[in-house]
Amino acid sequence: MSHSVYGRLMAVDREQILRSAAALLTRKSTATMDEVAKAAGISRATLHRQFAGRDALIKALEALGLTQLEAALDAARLDEGEATGAVRRLVAEVEPVAGFLAFLVTENQLFEAEAMNEGWNRIDDRISALFRRGQESGEFRIDLSPAWLTEALYGLVGSGAWAVQDGRVAAKDFQFMIVELLLGGVRRSA
Amino acid sequence: MSHSVYGRLMAVDREQILRSAAALLTRKSTATMDEVAKAAGISRATLHRQFAGRDALIKALEALGLTQLEAALDAARLDEGEATGAVRRLVAEVEPVAGFLAFLVTENQLFEAEAMNEGWNRIDDRISALFRRGQESGEFRIDLSPAWLTEALYGLVGSGAWAVQDGRVAAKDFQFMIVELLLGGVRRSA
DNA sequence: ACCGAATGAGACATCTTTGTCTCACCAGAA
DNA sequence: TTCTGGTGAGACAAAGATGTCTCATTCGGT
């Protein structure tokens, strides 16, 4: 029997397809199934065999993105140690899934489904809680709401991912740029 | 003759259409011409009379967005006074066109045209120059590149516009949130 | 070498969107 | 009132995307 082998190979393929699809759809959200297939290096037929249709593809994209984001939050151990360190770990862990995050943030058409809104809210809450913890511990300023800081983090990560993908900044600077700007801002510390 | 009257009314209508189109397409970039028309409160026929087709609509959207952004940069007088103050003025002036900016940033499909890339580069350069000026004057830290700061500003403005439009934060806080986070970061100044 | 599963290429009908057109209607100016 | 330019509603063909199917080919395991 080779079930496990095939299963693993297919899983890898699916994830690879979803990654390239996320990258493409982030740049051109009107991309055709044919374009998605070509971007993944497969035929449209195979794409359709893996994902029943466009809706299924989008749903899978959303599901995998949310799953990976949750995993990143877990790995970052947001409630351990100082909030500052947790933010650094968060950005570091989020980096590999930044493409997915950018896609999920911009693709609000999905949110009409109400269903996965829940998964998104869970992530929002966890990140908000981190910022709130930092405020209560005195590390973070209190005149910026956790909700806004969460949104801002999404925006910065998205900008960072796009800038890297577009070659405007080096990938190795991703984490540093985002963390430093988010934590310290652009003004020179006196 | 009523040329001027009709001309003015049509101009107002066109801009109103473009504004609602930008708002809609930012959320759902696959929106139909029919949906765009409904969102603008007009019929699809009238929409087609104003804009020859979808491409023309997108181009007009891009043209107006860039024009308004340039106007905002002019009004902000980026090269006057301290860089910090210029950043504050910039965010304040950009606020009314934040919806357009969010649309332009996410809609990279246009950038295949190479043509208006020039207009976008001009804006990039002006904002980058502001950050560089702040670094040279000693106001801003020098370990974050002007290119990244420019991208980050786009991301923050986009996030802010989306958060306001979505009711997650109050519109009156828009400017404060963005400027404060961009300038000072989340860490409490010691 | 053989076999089976998966793939790529392409044909095909169907559905959606687009772009154009016509016609009835309404509001403002003469 | 009468005329006129703009609009909304709807019909229509054309173009594009989608989803399904078939068949030849290729790749991996036996």
UniProtKB/TrEMBL annotation, chains A, B:
DNA-binding feature ranges: 32-51
Stretches that traverse the bilayer: none
Pfam families linked: TetR_N (PF00440)
Transport in keyword set: no
Annotated GO MF terms: DNA-binding transcription factor activity; transcription cis-regulatory region binding
Keywords: DNA-binding, Transcription, Transcription regulation
InterPro entries for the chain: Homeodomain-like_sf, HTH-type_TetR-like_transc_reg, HTH_TetR, Tet_transcr_reg_TetR-rel_C_sf
HTH tetR-type domain boundaries: 11-69
Keyword DNA-binding in record: yes
Protein's recorded name: DNA-binding transcriptional regulator, AcrR family
